[in-house]
Structures are given as structure tokens and as C-alpha cells.
Amino acid sequence: MLEKRISEIQADALARIGAAKSDEELDAVRVEALGRKGTLAQISKEMGKLAPEERAAAGKLLNAAKQVLEEAFERRKREFDQAALTQRLDAEWIDLTLPAPGPRAGSLHPITQIQMEIEDLFVSLGFMVLDGPEVETEYHNFDALNIPPEHPARDAQDTFWLTDGNLLRTHTSPVQVRGMERFKPPLRMIAPGRAFRNESVDASHEHTFYQVEGMMIDRDVSVAHLLYFMKTLLTEVFRREVTVRLRPGFFPFVEPGFELDIRCLICGGSGCPVCKHSGWVELLPCGLVNPNVLRISGLDTEKWNGFAFGLGLTRLVMMRYGIDDIRLLQGGDLRFLQQF
Ligand code: PHE
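Predict the joint structure of the above. Result:
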């Protein structure tokens, strides 16, 4: 009779051990079967009433059942521990092959950013991006641009002369000349870069500034072509409608020549130091290339003509970001630069 109950308790406990879904469930089964007041302990008590030989046989069976159950509990417990470990490893993994977080990444200077945008735009319009030297010859900076030595236009560009007769280029226009020397027309090129003038520095003047030169030489190029490209450029850069005006402007290397001004975006036109209190900012001098310039570089003016422009990149950046002092751009102050 007792033997039968022992096997029943064992079978029942084994089934529940297998079915247990958590440590807690498992413990509950263990207490019920093996605990001090558990079902097997109860059997143990009742065994006292048995005859000695029956008691020995039942005792054996009871001990065997206890051992089987202890082992089953241990096995099941290890399964739970293993599952918990796997779950933790899955949730808390660290990828040791990932690079450690390095120092804070820097950012591109706002002038570089706009320059890259303009390069992308003009490349998409079929223009080459050319580079030229910052130390230039007098010929490329002046003579080849129809500015002979005695021309008063030289006075407008207060030049840093070097002792060897060369100079720091006063504009990016010499790259036009180098472009024509190097490539045959038709020609579409831009040349971004630094230029230098002996300016007394204030909120809107620096001795070092950035321009983007542009030139297109083809057959029957007109002011309409020029205006199309200038409008495309300004819409792209400002991503909004800007008010522009076209004035006649004199540059020996263009004819007719224009000053394309935009309504000052710093003050909205009411006047501020950046627009010299005029409400307008000179941004884009341009015009049709003077035939003399083409001739000096050996181009046939019966066949070819073109337009050219000299975008003030530094001014453009100031307009776009509302920077009211040009000196901030080259000042190297990280508090300023980190905003971009
Ligand atoms: N190179 C001129 C300047 O810096 C600008 C310009 C370029 C004007 C091209 C007309 C055509 O002042």
C-alpha cells in the first residue's frame, strides 16, 4: 500500500518538475514532495506502524524515490540557470570589436561647406572645377585680364607685391586665364579659392577672403545665359527668393559689366555695417568677357565669346548665416566654428 503511494508521489513529482516554468514553481514542488512536512516525510512517519520486514522494503523504496527526485530537481534547476544565463548574455552583449568613442568630430568651415555646394551645383551644370596658385604673376592677375600697368583699375585692388615681382592674387580671375591657356573652348569652369588685398580690416573687409570665379566660353553666349546661371546659383545657395538688382559695373575684363547686388539679408535692407548702411550687398560682379581678354589668350573672337563672374564667397557665407562681422570667419574661435 505504502509502496504504491511512494511510486505515485514520485511519478507525480517528476511530471510537475518537468512542467515547472520557473525556479519558484520548482521550489514549490520540492517543498511539497521533499520538505519536512512534505508528502514523503508523511510516508516516513507512517512507516513506523509497519512490520519490520515490510518497513525495510518500504524504506529502500522511499530512499530511492528521494534520490531520483533530488536528481531531477537539480537537473531542472541547472536548465533554468542555463536559460537565464543565455537570456542575460543575449540582452547585455557588448561588441568588443566596435571602435571606442573617439574625440568629438570636427566640422567643416562654413566657407568650405558653401564652396562644396557650389562646386556640386556647377559640376551638375557641366562646369569644371579648377584650381590656381595664390602667388600669381603680374601677367595672369592683371595684364592678361586687360589691366595694363598704367590702368587705374589696378588702384582699386590694393595689392601685396612680393619682392620677386610676383604678387598675392587680388582675385580669382587669373584662373580664367589659366583655364583658357590649358583648355580649348568651349569651356565651362569655376575656380574657388583665396584672394588677398591690402585692406584695412573692419566688419566687412578682410585682407584674406574667398571668391568663386566662373567662366563660360561658347558660341553666341548672351547676358540671358549669364543671368540664368546667376539666378540658379543664388536660388540654390539661399534656398529662397532673394531680391537682386543689376547695376552697370566696370571691370576691364568684361564688357558689358555688371554688379549684381542682393538686398542685405542681415538687416533686411534698413542698413547695417555689413551693407555699409546701403541696404544692398555687392555679391556677384559679372559680365560678358571682353574680347581683348579672349584675344590675349589666343582665342578667335569671331567664333567664341562668353560670360564671367566673380562671386564673393565670404560675403555669401555672411549673408546665408547672418554673420555680421567678417573677422569671425578667420578668427579661429571654436565657439564660433562649432555652430556649423
Ligand atoms: N575679379 C573681380 C573682382 O574681384 C570680379 C569679377 C569677376 C568681375 C569676373 C567680373 C567678372 O573684383
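The pocket of phenylalanine is lined by residues 171, 173, 251, 254, 285-287, 308-310 (CB under 6 Å).
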